[in-house]
Each structure stands twice: as structure tokens, then as C-alpha cells.
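Worked example (supplementary).
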Amino acid sequence: MTAAARPGRPVLEVLLNALGLAIWAAHFTAIYATNALACARGLANTALFGLPFVPVLVTAFTVAALGGLALVMRSALRGLNPPLDEGGEAEPRFTRWFAFSTAALASLAVLFQGLPALVVPPCG
Amino acid sequence: MDTAAGARSRTPNATPRPPEELERLEAAWAYPRGIGLLTEYNNNIIGPLFVATALLFFLLAGVLALIIRAQLAFPGMTLVDPATYNQVFTTHGTVMMFLFAVPAVEAVAITLMPAMLGTRELPFPRLGAYAYLIYLMGGLFFYGSIFFGAAPDGGWFMYPPLTSKQYSPGINTDMYLLGIGFIEISAIAGAIELIVGILRCRAPGMTLGRMPIYAWGMLVFAGMVIFAFPAVIIASTLLELERAFGWPFFLPEKGGDPLLWQHLFWFFGHPEVYVIFLPAAAMVSMIVPTMAGARLQAHGLVVMALVGTAFISFGLWVHHMYATGIPALSLSFFAAAGFAVSVPSGLQVFAWIATFASGRRIQWTAPTLFMLGFLFIFMLGGLTGVMVSVTPFDWQAHDTYFIVAHLHYVLIGGMVFPLLGALYYWAPAVGAALSDRLGKLSFWLLFLGTNLTFFPMHVSGLMGMPRRIYTYPSGLGLELWNLLSSIGAAVFALGALVLLVDVVLHFRPSAPEGQRRNYWNAGTPEWLENDSYGPRSIPRIRDRYPLWADPHLAREVAEGAHYLPMAATGRREALVTSPAEAIPQYVAVLPFPGWGHVVAAVGTCGFFFALTGELLVEAALFFALGFCGVLWWLWHGTDFGPLEPRVVDIGDGIRLPTHATGPVTHSWWAMVCTMLVSGTSFACLLGSWLFLWLVNGDAMWPPPGQGIPVGGLGLAAFGLYAGGGLLAWAAARALGRGPRWALWAALGLAAALFAAGIGADFQALRSAGIEPTTHAYGAATFAIFTWQAAHVGITLVMLGYTLARSLAGRLDGERRVTADNTMLFALYTAGQGITGLGLLHLFPRLLA
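After joint prediction of all chains, the assembly is encoded as:
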């Protein structure tokens, strides 16, 4: 163990490992706000690119979120292989695995939440 | 700091240690005598008291539950009248949730966490003691209100309009809004203490990957408290503003909406369930490996489950609002999140089963039984939880006894059983062990009682029995199920009585002669020798279960062979380490016990009690007392500056400073946490404003007679806030580099800019004809302004306090923690003010 912690690095790195869940939160906020606004302001029947407003936006947010989560998982998987020297006694496999598994859970939740927009009427 | 190169020795320090070293350590951590003991903050004293107080509230709320069940045992009973019944069930729920469940898990953490992290003490022990004192005094006051007919009576979630001034004109609702609101301060104070403690005070080598799962659970708990509890504080404040001053947030005839309360309350209330459950689950993840004699299976997945559940639980609040007419698709988002959150919960259950399965020799003790009871009861509660997350089912079961059954299965199974198991498991780590025989007897009575009480409620609920009715007619087929529930409650009470007898008969704060220290042969550091000063030396951690991995560790630590076996400065100290890898960074000097936090607690409680009774003069006096207590506490108990020796060798050749400044300090971290609490509260206010805009429509936002805040004045406020913040930042940056008068001038000018900023902010609203009582637009706008004004007020006090420290010679380039904290808060206040201006000034103009 060394006594010298590199300044400014660890906090950000720890937080970045929860990026998958942050994407889930952003997705959830976006789809909920979209539908609330659409129903409160009578936009539910408005067309966007010739398609229904709410399902299009919710699907777009869902695809974007899943894309972001896929990137997080890919990055975490790559980090699992090479031995990382973080100076101290951190366990890179633990943090990378954490990043991967939380992103996987977030992907499941995002998919669950995005699918109903294709079948449930927005303001029914 | 620097590190000695060279080969690593077997232990960080050589033994035997000089005899005077232990004497000095004991002297630094000696308890005050006589009445001075009230000022002691040591977790070995505060922790058990905290746990005992939480259990007291469990029993007190349990007595109310028995009254409820006695009243409902037969149809047409008149044991209590309807009005009293309303107070009884409201107080039962409120006390169980706010005065038992949350404080209990926090109390266990304050008791155990220092030992589990291998540290001497948490970094803000007086904050922990303050949290305990206001909880104790506030809780007893709140509970006492029922004897005077003044207890809240609107149900534990206190929906308006039932709780509006029109339908609840007495002080019952105020008792909840002010009483519970301020007790939440205790939870938040404890949460900040735990976050900083867990992230910054772990023993060297205890990386995040090696951190005990209970510390993970409490870290998640504390983070959730920071982000969830502000919502209920803001909701309570808004309702109190409506009741006291007529600001119509929830009155539809004036543009308000009762659903705003439900959104705010349940944004707190649903995560609250996990705030209670996740620490309990983490306790289970500590106890099961010990009882199974095997490491926790899928440790990484369990950590993921804790963190993932915490996040997703913030997307579930509308589960409680399925019957409010929210659009169908929105409901399905929440239903989907409900399915998603069951995945990590299921993962934990499988991990515990796998751990039991992997154990070579399971210890069939009382804690083991409580763990198995937890699994059975919580599983049933979880399954009915999935049922009620299905929207159409919930429409049928909503507000029936099915919900009462579900929530009790979840809370008793998910929290009470693990907590009681933890009581039996960790009692020998704190003092004397409890009786295993009585523990098993208590378990079986509680297990039988729980199922007999609550399982029939599923049936009575599905038969249509609504919750919260004070009686029911005969002939509806409800008699048998209610009688069974009441008999079950009596059996449960008998189990609680056996537990109480066991605690009274057997628990003592110190272990008896011959009691093995590592009582259950556990693997985690809380089973190391522990005294008033914590461990004799701070252990070097190299494994998730260090006591299993290194059989010599306990002896070495007790001999002082590990880190910091001394009181280097002659004062109480804690070793501060880096957040991810637990690399030693500096030795933090802790305050000696003092009266400041005690006086502050008395003042805080008195202020809220007096306010509840509308005794304004007395409230002002108590406010002044509490304020003086806080100043006294800070003046004498913080920012000591560099002490001798300036550098200390803690072992392994690691030389650390005994003083630190800037972002590395635990004080900086606590200030950031405080800002997160404020920021979340402010976000709730912004969200409330936007919600009311959404329900009112653009034409009524602003309503006729009121306008958009005056832009020029808003621009001036923007400049003044920004100038004030920048000046505070510049003053802190220049500290110790220039003449002192320049610092004083900068602080004074910053204060003037903030004061002028809030003045311009106010004038911008008044000049546009905005006023808070005629319409929700004005109320929501003034709520944001008032929040900002309060922050400007605190900033002015902090700037003045910093000036006073400098004048008294307690502030310079090295001794600068006060200035850094003031700078952080001033920057936050400026940013918050600018954000508020953006919403109030720009948003309506964009829509126009």
C-alpha cells in the first residue's frame, strides 16, 4: 500500500461506475415528463414525423438510453480483462463488474419501461 | 505525506508498544464524569442509547397496534371513539415509520460502523450525538401528543384536503408537519455522518471491494436519505405554509392541487421502504455468512443489488397513486419499474440461499432463525408487492386490508426480523450476549404472531374491508378474519415481551468475564477488541473477511501492532483515508466532548415545540438558544488548525499530517453532502412550481392580476448573487496571501452583495404584483424565493462567522476550514439563486 492518493481521480472514477443507473434515471425522467406534458397539453394525438407523438419520443429515448448503456457495458467488459494498476489496492474487477452489472440491470429496466408505449394509449 | 520505501514488515508497527502510549490513548478517550457524561458523543455510548430508544418507540407504537386490534376484534366494538381511533392508527404508522424504522437502522449503524470500518470514531461524532438528542426529545414529545388529543389524525401520509386547515383546524396536523419534519433533520444529520464516515474513515486497505456489505447497505441508505427525505420536508413545509399563512399549494379553487402533496410525499415515501429494507438486507448479508461459516455468495451482485434497488426505488412513487387518474401510459412506466426492482431483490434472496447452501456447518441459533423467518415473511410481502404493482389488481385492492397485509409483511419481514436477528447477533460485540433460548422462544412467537395477524388480512382485504375504519358491521363475513388477526397481534405482543425480558435480564453494556470476543467466529472487523477508543490500533485490511483470512490479526491489532496505535496529538483522533482504495491521507483531530451540541439540540427541539403550539415569543427564544449552541459547538469544536506534532508516523513508514485543508478534508465532504440536501430540496420546489404550471395551463400562469417577475431587477439579482459568490470564492483563495483587512473587506462586500441580491429578487416579484396568498402561482413563486432568502440568511451568518474567526486570530492560510466551508456554501447559494431566477424569469417568457 502506498500512502499517496492521486488527487482528484478516485471520486470521479467511483461515480462513473454508476453511470448505467444515471442513464436509467435520465430515461425515466424523460419518458415520464414527455407523457405528462402530452396529456396535460393535449399533445397526445399530435404527429411527429407522421407518427404518434408519445410512442415516437418514448421509443427514441429508449433506443438512445439502451445505446448508452451498451457503451457502458462494453467499456466495463473491456476493463475486466487487462490487469489495471491503480496504484493502491483497488480491485478493478470489482468496480468494472459493478459498472457492468448495474448497466445490465438498468438496461432491463429501461426496456421494461419503454415497451408499454408501443401498446398502451398515452392518456387512456 | 510520504512513504518509506523498503520491505513490508509482517505488521505495520513493532511490538511491544511503550506502556505510556496506551495510557495517553485512554486519557484522550476517557468519558467525562458526572453530568458531563451528557456531553459525551462516543459511539459506544450514543449507539446503544440510540438503539434502545428506537426499540422503546417500537414498543410504544406496538401498544397502539394492540389497541387497534382490540377495537377490531369483534364487530361494533366501542373501545375507542372514531376520532381517537384516527389518532391511534396515524400515530402508530407515523411512529413506526419515522421514530422506529429509520432511526433504528441508523442507530445500529452508529453503534457498529466505527468498529466495522476499523476506525476509532465516525468523523462528526457530535453531529451524531445531536441527531440522537433531537430524535429522543422530539420523538417523546410527538408520542406524548396522543395523551392530549393533539396527535395527528390524517393517516401517516396525511393527504390534503383532509389535512387542510378547513378540515383539520386543530394542531393535530401541525404536530405531524412540524414534529416529524424536524425529526427528519436527525435522519439527515446521521446520513451525512455515515456517508463521510464510510467513504473516508475506513481502515487502510479496506477498498470498496473489501468493504463489509453492511457498510455498503448503510452507504446506500444514507444516499437515499439525502435524496428522498428533502421531498417530505418540502411537502410538510408547503402544507404548513398553506395552513398558517394561506399560501394555496393544495387548494384547487386557487390553482393548487392535492396531487402535488401525493407526488412529493411518495417521492419520499416509496424510497423510504427501501431506506428501511436495504440496511436490513445488508444486516442479513452479514449474519448469514457467519451462521453458515461461509463467505457471502455473489458478493459483487449483492452490492449491485443494493445500489440498483436504491436507484430504481425512486421510479416507483406512483405505485401509491394508481387510483388518482394519472394517464395509463404513465402508470405503466411505474409498473414496469416495479417489476425491474424485484430483480435485484430476488438476486439477494438467491445469494443468501446459496450462502446457506455453501456452508459446511450452519449454527442453528436465534439470529439464524430470525434470518430464515425474514426470508419467509419478506418473500410473501415481496410477492404481494409484485401483485399490487400490477395496475388493474391495485385498483381492486387499493385502500383495503390487502394493502395493510402487504405492507406489514414487507416491513416486519424486511426490517423487524433482520433487526431483531441483528440484536441477538451483535449484542456480544457491544456488551453481554442475549439468551439464545429466550431468543428462539421470542422468534417463534413473533413468527407465528406475524403470520396469524397479517395473513388473514389478505382475505379480509379481498372481501372488501377498507383500511382505517374504526369498526365494521357483522354479517359481512369479516368476523373470523379479524378475530384471527387480533389473536395474532396478542401472540406477537407476547413474543415482544419475551424479547424485552431477555434484554432486561441479560444485556449489559460490557461483556462478562469469559465471553469470547469473536462470539460467533465471524470474519469482519467489528469483532476485534474494542474499547472507548475503538481498536487498540487501526487494522490493515487485506480481505473481505479479514478475521477469517488472517488468524493473527485480532491479536496483532490488540497489541498495537497495526496503524496509529497512539494518540499522536494527545487528543481524540481518526484516520482519514481515500474513498475508493482506503489509502491513508491524514490524521483528523476530533473535538473533546462539549455542551454546544446539547444546547443546540435543546434549542432546536424547543423551537419546533413552541412553533407547534403557536408560541411565537418562546419559539424565537429557543431559536436564539439553538443558534448560540451551534455557534459554541463550531467555535470550540472545529477547525483546530495545525497541532503538534504536525506529522506522525502511523506505521509501515507512512507519515501523515495531523492537519489538512481543501477537498481532501472530511469537512469539505460533509459540506458537499449538505449542499446535496439543499439542492434536492430546491429541486423539489422547482418541480412543484412546474407541476402547478402544468395543471393550471399557460393562461393561468401567471393568473390575471399577477405578472412575470420584472426582468431588469432579476438581472440585477443575477449579477449580485454571482458577484457575492465570486467574492467569497476569491476571499477564500486569497486567504493567507494578502493583508487581513483585504479579507475582511471581501467578506463584508460579499455579504452586502448577497443582501442586495435578495432585495432585488424580492422587488422583482413585488413589482410584478406577485403575492403568495391568492393563487398557487404566487405561492409557488414565493416558496422558491423564501427558500433562497433562507439560504442568503445562512450565507450572511457564515460570512460573519468567518469574519469573526479572522478577527479572533482563528483563521489564516493554514487554519482555513471555516473559510473553505463558507466559500462552498456561498457558491451554492449563488448558483441556487441564479437557477431560481432562470425558472421564474426566463421560463414564463419562453412560453409567452
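Two points are worth noting when inspecting this output. Chain A touches chain B through 53 residues (CB under 8 Å). The beta strands of chain A are 47-48, 51-52.
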